[in-house]
Amino acid sequence: MRLAATASHNQAYAVQGLLCNHPTGRGRKELGIRIPRPLGHGPSRFIPEKEAAARHQCSYLVNLHVNDFLHVGGDPKWLNGLENAPHKLQNLGELNKILAHRPWLITKEHIEQLLKTEEHSWSLAELIHAVVLLTHYHSLASFTFGCGISPEIHCEGGHTFKLPSVSNYCICDITNGNHGVDETHDGPAGSISTTESFCEVEALMEKMKKLQECRDEEEASQEEMATRFEREKRESMFVCCSEDEESAPTRDVSRHFEDTSYGYKDFSRHGMHVPTFRVQDYSWEDHGYSLVNRLYPDVGQLIDEKFHIAYDLTYNTMAMHKDVDTSMLRRAIWNYIHCMFGIRYDDYDYGEINQLLDRSFKVYIKTVVCTPEKTTKRMYDSFWRQFKHSEKVHVNLLLIEARMQAELLYALRAITHYMT
Fold it and tell me: I need a labelling partner for 43 at 20 to 30 A (CA). Which of 152, 162, 228, 283 fits?
């Protein structure tokens, strides 16, 4: 389950270049097309991107967009706080925070408020463009933290690191100030033998084999499938994202968004009852795709390709094993993320998730997807200990695309309800 070939990478980067509205326009050039941007080509287009990255305190992405904003002639006063930006962009703050942390709460009333705010109103095309940017950058923040990407040394929060030996190197060595410390192998109590890690891989492959045999022998009833979904959804609430206490965002990041205390809350916790989102009633393939393509021409196709590239990536390997069908494992990861957001596939047996994803892996997934700013090297090291870094990066790609699709589904469904 490694990263795909160079051709697929280039296509994915081209799509990202388009969605990122990079000043070079690299994405449009490589794809050989020109797509109109409802938000235009001026500095305003960087504000939603910056706001989205700031919601997760991702100073690396915030710094990139601040620099791009100033490069194209943006007013530096806008960077002193969101209240200094145009009212139209300020109005996007509520949608941004709900999408980032609790997308299941988005309703057609939120959409109506943006579309009918007199002189500061958004058009449907502009709103679709903004939603695509916000969801893309929320997910990109997850990828940034999941891969241990930190700000440059000259930026606030940036740092360098002392190169360790090759055998101890980890892609996350530079994240959250944990560089240069091998947290999982400090002493005998915390050490993990190669044999033990090897056994974990063998056990996972054996589970996949048995699940496939059970699939072939009998299929659970719809009632049992629904029960298993509800059970998995409840259990996901008790997967803790981090042992650390929540830290307040630094002023450098917090000035770029409002309501800094607003954050992730579990789907069914705190007395909230939100109906399950059934993909059979509203899906990306049958509904969201066409809506985006209608209001933001050709971008629906590009996003769809991006989803498929991440979902289908495989070299048919698992750690040291080759010629392995990893589709069952990839689907479990994707559907677990959607389950955390209350999204259910009627044709999927959610009992497979507990068989294939152990607790340490679930902790990593939930942290990177829901509270990426809390991701640590320890979490990265604790799951799939015999897998290559490229395989773990592939996991991150699955996580961010599943997250983006989940956010899009809730936002696009609300827009559909408003339009009908």
Answer: 152
Q: Give DSSP secondary structure letters for 47-102.
A: HHHHHHHHHTT-HHHHHHHHHHHHHTT--GGGGG-GGGS-HHHHTTHHHHHHHHH-
Q: Which residues belong to the active site? A: 58
Q: Which residues contact 366 (CB under 8 A, 6 or more apart)?
A: 236, 239, 241, 340
**How would DSSP label each residue in 359-383?**
HHHHHHHHHHHH-GGG--HHHHHHS
What's the pTM value of the predicted model, to 2 decimals? 0.80
Report how far residue 132's alpha carbon sits from residue 343's, in angstroms, rounded to the nearest whole number.
Answer: 19
Sign of CA dihedral 201, 207, 213, 216: negative
Alpha helices, H only, 172-285: 194-217, 222-236, 251-254
Name the residue type at position 104: W
Sign of the alpha-carbon torsion through 229, 231, 236, 237: positive
pLDDT digits (tens, 9 = 90+) for 11-40: 333 334 444 443 333 333 333 333 445 555
CB–CB of 307/402 below 8 Å? no
Three-class secondary structure of residue 104 per DSSP? helix
pLDDT digits (tens, 9 = 90+) for 257-304: 566 778 888 766 655 677 899 999 999 999 999 999 999 988 999 999
Task: Classify the C-alpha dihedral 25-31-32-37 as positive or negative.
Answer: negative
Residue 371, pLDDT above cutoff 90: yes
For residues 386 and 375, give the distance between their C-alpha atoms in angstroms, rounded to a whole number.
20
Distance CA 313, CA 294 (A): 28
- Compute the average pLDDT of residues 334-344: 95
Among 4-13, 152-161, 376-385, name the most confident range. 376-385
The single residue listed with the structure tokens 């009992």 is 351
Q: In terms of residues, how long is the chain?
A: 420
